[in-house]
Amino acid sequence: MGEAGVVSNIVDIPIELIDPSPYQHRRSFSPAKLKELASSITRDGLIQPVVLRVPNGNGRYELIAGERRWRAMQLAELPTILARLVDVSDIQARRMCAAENLQREDLSAIEEINAIVEMVDAELIEDGDYRRLGETPVERVKWLLGRMESCRVNDVSYDNFIRKIAYKVNITFSRLPKPIRWDSFYRHDLPLVTSIDDDVAEFAAENKLNKSQTRETQRLKKQAPEIFEKAKGRRDEDGRAIITTGIFSPEDVPFSDLSAREINRLPFQRSVVRSETRSEVIHISDDSYEWYTPPKYISAARKVMGDIDLDPATSEEAQEAVRATRYYTQRVDGLRQSWRGRVWLNPPYNMPLVEQFTNKAIESYKSGDVTEAIILVNNATDTKWFQSLLDYPICLVRGRVQFFNPYGLTLQTRQGQAIFYLGNNIGRFAEVFSKFGPVLCKYDDQQS
Fold it and tell me: Are residues 376 and 424 in the same domain?
């Protein structure tokens, strides 16, 4: 990859003379974040200049890097923008744009895969034989990697064309910001952009969906297109798609907060909601092990603690929503492990496990190993373990928490729920969790 030629130092360029890059594959720019950036630039100025190509006869500049900043400047109605001018070829411009996109931390899965395709294609496009493989970068990269994969799987030697180009493929993938093997990319990532509809790809990019979420959204569109269309048509103040979930007490949540499993359940939820018109109610035993917590409570816990270091009583499926740094399943047995850091605990609700897990949470907090913990349990006010938790702030949840089971059903307990907080940030806990119900603290007559 050749070095771009720097034409001048940083200069002010009229915004009206700048055109977006034809090589930009970023699909989504959050209106709320653009507005926030525009306010910041208006207040503090532009810290990082954009990169522009030198005008080529028409007096206009082509954007290479910094489209979000350029859009924010337009929103702020500022006349000029600081820019670094470079004299580069079309191929160099493609490479620079793809590299800049891959450096971003907020890429959706679709945007990241497309940026990698663009990077590989830009590295190989000067080869005439490669150019003839297809009309688009995706077609060319898919054919090339498919041929390489076929040779690898069948233990067949590369032909002359593949042999002369394979080393560039390996080098390109090894130099990505997040290096990946080309064969893994071909099998697991590339199918995501070749097998989904354009509107699903756009929706996934806008809402920063990961790979699993994107696959389930494509399935959702085919199985229940009306649900997908409703999600596309509703936005919150930050521009995120909103979907209604829950059977017994529906609520609006950001689509991006749903795990892949929860997206998969949406068509089934629709059929269960219809059955509710016949007054059918589903209950589950309090002895059930697998109760998956709705995302809104997980999100609230993160707002209080900042992150979740440990979920000691969980399953692989539940981690699609919890996303704890470390977690213990029934097979590992969290009661036999050490607990440290910030803990989210939705323990098994049967005895004696619920008592054992809540007691271990309290002991680990008192020892200092656990710095904060948020615990979701049934309102079992008559039990010893519940009485022990009453030393700590409690949120009395209004109504019943609508859990999920492993089969996709939204399920209702026979009791209400309570959420306890073990930690020093009691004010923040009260602020965040009071939307779910009143937050109370134990009365200490020694402080009266």
Answer: yes
CA triplet 264, 266, 267: central angle to 5 degrees? 95
Q: Which amino acid is at 242?
A: I
201 within domain boundaries: no
- Domains of the chain: total: 4
Residue keyed to tokens 């229940």: 224
Q: How far apart are CA 172 and CA 103, in angstroms?
A: 15
Q: What is the CATH number of the domain that holds 27?
A: 3.90.1530.10
Percent of the chain with pLDDT over 90: 30
84 pLDDT exceeds 90? Answer: no
Domain membership of residue 236 as a residue range: 208-278
φ/ψ (deg, to 5) at 337: -105, 165
For residue 4, the model assigns a pLDDT of 55
Shared domain for 343 and 412, answered yes or no, is yes
Residue partners of 448: CB distance under 8 A and separation at least 6? none
Q: Which two tokens stand for residue 351?
A: 């005895």
202 falls within a domain: no
Give the pLDDT of residue 440: 94
What local confidence, expressed as pLDDT, does residue 408 receive? 46
Q: Which two tokens stand for residue 43?
A: 């207040």
Which one, of 369, 381, 342, 375, lies nearest residue 356 by Cα? 375
Enclosing H/E stretch for 378: strand 370-378
CA–CA–CA angle 346, 351, 352 (5° rounding): 95
- pLDDT for position 286: 36
Q: How far apart are the first and last CA of the chain?
A: 73
For CA atoms 407, 408, 412, 417, give the dihedral sign. positive
